[in-house]
Design brief:
- Helix content is 40%, strand content 15%.
- It has one domain: HAD superfamily/HAD-like (Rossmann fold, 3-Layer(aba) Sandwich), CATH 3.40.50.
- The protein has 208 residues and is α/β, with parallel strands linked by helices.
- The relative contact order is 0.15.
- InterPro entries: HAD-like_sf, HAD_sf, HAD_SF_ppase_IIIC, MDP-1_euk, MDP_1_eu_arc.
- It comes from Diaphorina citri (Asian citrus psyllid).
- This is Magnesium-dependent phosphatase 1-like isoform X3.
- Keywords: Signal.
């Protein structure tokens, strides 16, 4: 085999190795090449360090699970594909992350309940069903009145003590009413989120 041919083969090998190293360096440099699970904005958004959970987590509805008042909507409601609207065309949707929050609680053996003061009882229940949240709720106390009444009914129906409940509501007056019962109450300022949930769970755990 001639020396020229051997030199030619040697140069081909060197060129191939150089191209491989260049491609790998480009792959490592740009984050978009990472695996989807590594880049997902939802990864570890629900704190895995939380090990202790209350027996029941209770949610208000309006401006807690969804950004609207049920009494402002006009029936009948309709579902077109994945979108739910009222008779005026108002889009009805939950805050981002709500289904994941409810599923997370159910997976960790928490009962999930609703406690709402709305006078539009039937409409609230219809919306929960239409936007596929109804499946997560074991108890629904939806009617006008002071929220202490709702919690008395929840305790009677489930046998769960107030100290084993966490309550999320956008109206501070409701928290002021319910807190003296021994329920851990969290003020929801801008709708439910993973951060708000973790705040509530950790505050409850610090007292139990």
């Amino acid at each position: 085999m001639s020396k020229i041919y051997l030199v030619y083969l040697f140069l081909l090998v060197i060129l191939h190795m150089t191209n491989q190293n260049f491609a790998q360096s480009r792959f490592d440099h740009f984050p978009e090449h990472k695996l989807p699970q590594e880049m997902s904005p939802q990864s570890n958004s629900l704190d895995p360090s939380v090990k202790k959970f209350p027996k029941m987590v209770v949610f208000d509805l309006d401006y807690t699970l969804w950004p609207l008042h049920v009494h402002d909507l006009v029936a009948p409601f309709k579902k077109i594909g994945q979108k739910v609207m009222d008779a005026k065309g108002t889009l009805i949707k939950y805050y981002r992350g709500v289904p994941e929050i409810l599923r997370y609680l159910k997976e960790n053996k928490c009962l999930v309940a609703a406690a709402s003061r709305t006078s539009e009882i039937l409409h609230a229940k219809q919306i929960l069903n239409l936007i596929n949240l109804n499946q997560y709720f074991s108890n629904k106390e939806i009617y006008p009145g002071q929220k202490t009444t709702h919690f008395e009914s929840l305790k009677k129906a489930t046998g769960i003590e107030y100290k084993d409940m966490v309550f999320f509501d956008d109206e501070e007056r409701n928290s002021h009413d319910v807190s003296p019962l021994g329920v851990t109450c969290i003020h929801v300022k801008k709708g439910m989120s993973h951060a708000v949930l973790q705040k509530g769970l950790k505050q409850w755990a610090s007292k139990n």
